[in-house]
Amino acid sequence: MTTHSVVRPPPSERSGSDFARLSRKIADAGLMGRRPGYYALRITVVAGLYVAGWAAVPLVGDSWWTLTVAAFLAVVFGQVALLAHDAAHRQVFRRRRAGEVSGRIAGAGIGMGYGWWQDKHTRHHANPNHEDLDPDLDPDLLVWSQDQARAATGLPRLIGRWQAFLFFPLLTLEGFNLHVSSARALANRSLKHRALDGVLLFAHFAVYLTVLFWLLPLGMAIAFLAVHQCLFGVYLGSLFAPNHKGMPILKGEDRPDFLRRQVLTSRNVRGGRLTDIALGGLNHQIEHHLFPSMPSPNLRRARTIVRRHCEDLGVDYVETGLVTSYRLALVSLHQAGAPLRKTRVPA
What we know:
This protein has 18 helices and two strands. It is mainly α. The radius of gyration is 22 Å and the shape is globular. The relative contact order is 0.14.
């Protein structure tokens, strides 16, 4: 029989909280450093595709092939949203002001109110998958737990019965929801820079609609708008659905320490470089939630360190394929709506 001696880490690696020790490992690996070359290239490519997409609208002109341009721009809008996300997390620039300026420009390009989104997303990061504290779990249309289902009224009560089957069709409305929510948030006087956000938001709407209805016949312009916004919504929703849906939901005073709060409520998606590009690095959701300001191209390298650290602590580290992640999200939605299927919903 072979015996193995237990090798204990040096005192510097044993001191501090579980997250503090992980942070030191990440810092020692140099993974929190900026990646200016990567972001310069990514911004240039996405901006070029954005300009090319809109330039193609008058070039294709009065032809139904213009709907392929609408589909192309839906993907480009999703990539712009991912850049706004990285800028808001100060992944692109170290200074807060530079991040806010670039994030607002990107948000204006897709018709998103930057201040509204940043406030919502910050609260999500602080308490991911917490039924009472995570704004992404508000039962405004869907119910995310059986307790929400039992208390549901109106549309959530009606839709919640079969929400798993309706989830992807409903994502076609997510682009419109982004615009409407951004506009509604302007009524909130506590919103910082709301006047600037309002100017940028309505300037986007004005230019967007003017370009479509000036360059295209009425019916084609409406079709372009529908295809573009619906596919943008599906892409946008598909970016975030695999990350937390179907993972444990926290309630009340159930707030574990920072590391466990972020890891246990998040799910990674396996894949190669194409997955990283399509999901903007959000497929490494666990690492992103632990280190929100880490540049997205560093998340893949951080994965090995974080996973080993979680294994040493006995903390579940969940990682699945993309299709499996969607299946788990849909199963979770179906289970959440179970109480509504046991009661008769009035017509």
